[in-house]
From TrEMBL:
<feature type="transmembrane region" description="Helical">
    <location>
        <begin position="60"/>
        <end position="80"/>
    </location>
</feature>
<keyword id="KW-1133">Transmembrane helix</keyword>
<keyword id="KW-0809">Transit peptide</keyword>
<dbReference type="GO" id="GO:0005743">
    <property type="term" value="C:mitochondrial inner membrane"/>
</dbReference>
<keyword id="KW-0496">Mitochondrion</keyword>
<keyword id="KW-0999">Mitochondrion inner membrane</keyword>
<dbReference type="InterPro" id="IPR036418">
    <property type="entry name" value="Cyt_c_oxidase_su6a_sf"/>
</dbReference>
<dbReference type="InterPro" id="IPR001349">
    <property type="entry name" value="Cyt_c_oxidase_su6a"/>
</dbReference>
<protein>
    <recommendedName>
        <fullName>Cytochrome c oxidase subunit 6a</fullName>
    </recommendedName>
</protein>
<comment type="similarity">
    <text>Belongs to the cytochrome c oxidase subunit 6A family.</text>
</comment>
<keyword id="KW-0472">Membrane</keyword>
<dbReference type="GO" id="GO:0030234">
    <property type="term" value="F:enzyme regulator activity"/>
</dbReference>
<keyword id="KW-0812">Transmembrane</keyword>
<dbReference type="GO" id="GO:0006123">
    <property type="term" value="P:mitochondrial electron transport, cytochrome c to oxygen"/>
</dbReference>
<dbReference type="Pfam" id="PF02046">
    <property type="entry name" value="COX6A"/>
</dbReference>
């Protein structure tokens, strides 16, 4: 019904040609005792360039990136003592520390991401200082701080 006219179909149409194709495929596959296919010079050059590039990135990682990480960590830890908040330059803007009610965690005045080392609020600092003094003077923990609110501005 269909005539095998194209070269590829005609080449592998008979059983004898199919056996030749199978032998060719078996010789192409690399394996123990089997010959590897001939490699083109461009493929060999590409493999050599890839090996050179891999060696370069290996050396850059071990002799560049890793020592740089340790050196930068040492510099950062050496300068940590200079990283403190200057409380004299604090400007109390009206939109700072404005919330509608107490937070359900902690003492109710600090947000979940509050950091005493970085966030400074003079009113809150004064309130916490009073709480620390009252805790030191009495054996019971004061509960007034849980209901106290700090500088809630009214927007009308």
């Amino acid at each position: 019904m269909f005539r095998a006219t194209s070269g590829a179909v005609r080449r592998f149409s008979s059983a004898a040609n199919m056996r030749q194709a199978t032998k060719y495929v078996e010789t192409v596959r690399a394996g123990p005792g089997r010959p590897t296919p001939p490699m083109l010079e461009s493929e060999r050059a590409a493999i050599e360039r890839a090996a050179i590039a891999a060696n370069l990135w290996y050396k850059l990682t071990w002799f560049g990136a890793i020592p740089f990480t340790f050196i930068s960590a040492a510099v950062i830890f050496a300068n940590l003592e200079h990283q403190h908040l200057d409380e004299t330059n604090y400007v109390a803007y009206p939109y700072l520390n404005w919330h509608l009610g107490p937070f359900p965690f902690g003492n109710g005045l600090r947000s979940l991401f509050w950091n005493d080392n970085n966030n400074y609020n003079p009113a809150l600092a004064e309130l916490l200082k009073k709480e620390a003094e009252s805790v030191a003077s009495s054996p019971t923990i004061p509960t007034g701080l849980k209901t106290a609110f700090v500088n809630y501005p009214t927007y009308e």
